[in-house]
Structures are given as C-alpha cells and as structure tokens.
Amino acid sequence: MQESSSQRAYQATKDEILSGGMRGGQLLSEVEVAARLGVSRTPVHEAFLRLAAEDLLELLPRRGAVVVAMSAQDATDLLEMRLALETAAVRRLCRTPADVDRLFGDLTALLDAQRRGVDAGDAEQFAAADDAFHRRIVDVAGNGLARRFYGSLSDRQRRMIASAAQSDAHRLELLIDEHRRLAAAIERCDVEEFEAALLAHLEATYRVVLR
C-alpha cells in the first residue's frame, strides 16, 4: 500500500507539472499535496524525492519543494537534440520509400488526433498527440539508440508544449499547420525542407515559452 500511495503521489504531481497545472516557481507543501490526494505525508515525501532527482522539483528543507522552471538553456538543449534526432531519422527513412508511406499515414492520423484535441479545448490531449507525432518519426526510422534517447526527452517536450499552449492559445492552431508542413516534406522525401521546417517549428515554440 505504501508503494502504491507513493507511486500515485509521484504520478499525480508529475502529471500536474508536465501539463502546466503547476508552474515553475510554485511552492508545494507535502501536507497540502497529501491531503488533496488522500494519502499520508510519507509517500508524498518519497514522490518529491523522485521528482527532485528528475530535476522537476527543488527540495526546500522544512518548507516542501518548489517547481523547477524550464530555463532558456534547457529549452535550447531540447531544441538542438530534437532537431538533430528527427532530421537524422528522416534522412534515414528517405532511403526506404515503403517506410515513408507508412509513416505519412501514421502522421496523418496523429494530425487528426491533434485537431480533435484543439476542437475539444483539451491541451493535454493535444500535447500527447504532439509528442506521438514527433516520436513516431524517430520510431519508424528504426535506430534503436535514437529511439531510446528520444524517449528520454518526452517529459521535457510535453512540458514545453503545455507551456506554449498556456502562453498563447492560438499556438495550437499554428502547430497543426507546422506539423502538416513537416509531414508533407517527409512524403516528398525532402530532407532539407523538413529540417528547415522543423527548425522554424521548434524555434517558434521556444519563443512562446520563454518570452
């Protein structure tokens, strides 16, 4: 039961941070979180320790914890890694037309899921579909090392998209248009166009988040 309570406290708090429900700089009290989740303070303390190890919380002795804000350096690092990994994936994919056709079909379905998220006003659903869109590009390329490393970026990517949506409600509509451009470049096997479109896409989100 203790382990289950700790996991629940961890996942609930992490989900709120990644979805933007808890913003950078916000002070969290173990007592308040425990009361809200209906658990004792100990599992919340254990959850906070795990989140601190993931650089999502900074522990404050006798005060609880504060949500770590995404810094300009964090955003730049994420942008550079995503640009490199996704462009390399598309370059590899374009050597096998059958994989390109399969990926384009998958991306089209994920664009529909993004549209449903926007129409429903569900930024969390949109963020999940956005993450799946970009992750699918790397997955289909078939580089196991790249897939595992890209997976480790998922939390940061989800948090950035949620932050962008909260900062600029119109950004989600623009993201769908940008994703369509990325998918079209993949369908044409135009690696240079994909890289240019991806850079513009990532930098636009970066500016919204950090302005």
Automatic annotation (TrEMBL):
Keywords: DNA-binding, Transcription, Transcription regulation. It comes from the Bacteria. InterPro entries: GntR_C, TF_FadR/GntR_C, Tscrpt_reg_HTH_GntR, WH-like_DNA-bd_sf, WH_DNA-bd_sf. Residues 3-70 form the HTH gntR-type domain. Transmembrane segments: none annotated. GO terms for molecular function: DNA binding; DNA-binding transcription factor activity. PANTHER family: TRANSCRIPTIONAL REGULATOR, GNTR FAMILY, UXU OPERON TRANSCRIPTIONAL REGULATOR. This is GntR family transcriptional regulator. The lineage of its organism: Bacteria, Bacillati, Actinomycetota, Actinomycetes, Mycobacteriales.
